[in-house]
């Protein structure tokens, strides 16, 4: 039986229009997997937990929220205290932190366009990781200190939209984790999933990295996001 010919016609690009972009940090702009693995696997060992199972939970969430899922019987004040120690460890350890491919060019293309960083990291950690990756921090930032609830709660993305003065439905989120993608969807926003984790969680479109994304200004204060 003859083989079915493979079409040489490339898939049409996906085009999203928005008035603002909301950007996660870890896994989306910055590859910090090496340090996250080191620190959380040490934490798992200290608490007698399976490191692989722990790593399935921690991406995208604030540390205390991950701990609450992994140690459900532990008092929340212990989780917050433990999280403070973990944040200090993570801030001091930037070995192996690098930009996601295409991130420098992507951020440069957003100059003058409404966008914000929405991260589960606190100010010291987000500052350290963006600097280690050689990336400029957006002027508008929603960090752990800014919210009362961690992703997958939509609070961070809703605050980012409000800071930019844009309705949630007019925002496009860039995220890599299940918790972050759920947060963006719960906020009523469209989501571009970035990287290998993202495709498992139902974003509107998935890219391997930011080299597949082009951003263009549109007359009337709009933004066109082209994913090819």
What does this structure look like?
The structure is a single chain. With 228 residues, the protein is an alpha/beta fold. 36% of the residues lie in helices and 20% in strands. It is built from 8 helices and 11 strands. The protein has helices spanning 33-46, 51-58, 63-70, 76-92, 103-109, 123-132, 155-164, 178-186, and strands spanning 14-18, 20-23, 30-31, 98-99, 115-118, 140-142, 171-175, 190-194, 205-207, 213-218, 222-227. It has a 6-stranded parallel sheet, covered by helices on one side. The chain has a 3-stranded antiparallel sheet with strand order 1-11-10, with no helix packed on it. A two-stranded antiparallel sheet has the order 3-4. The longest helix is centred in the middle third of the chain and has 17 residues, at 76-92.
Radius of gyration: 18 Å
Give the CA-CA distance, first to last residue.
34 Å
Low-pLDDT stretches: 1-10
Strand content: 15-25%
What number is the mean pLDDT? 93
Structural class: alpha/beta
The major beta sheet can be summarized as: 6 strands, parallel
H-E string:
EEEHHHHEHEHEHEHEEEE
Q: How many H/I helical runs?
A: 8
> What topology, given as strand order, has the largest sheet?
6-5-2-7-8-9
> What spatial form do the alpha-carbon principal axes imply?
globular
How many strands? 11
Bin the helical content.
25-40%
Q: How do the strands and helices of this protein lay out in sequence?
A:
Layout: E1 14-18, E2 20-23, E3 30-31, H1 33-46, H2 51-58, H3 63-70, H4 76-92, E4 98-99, H5 103-109, E5 115-118, H6 123-132, E6 140-142, H7 155-164, E7 171-175, H8 178-186, E8 190-194, E9 205-207, E10 213-218, E11 222-227
Parallel strand pairs: 2-5, 2-7, 5-6, 7-8, 8-9
Antiparallel strand pairs: 1-11, 3-4, 10-11
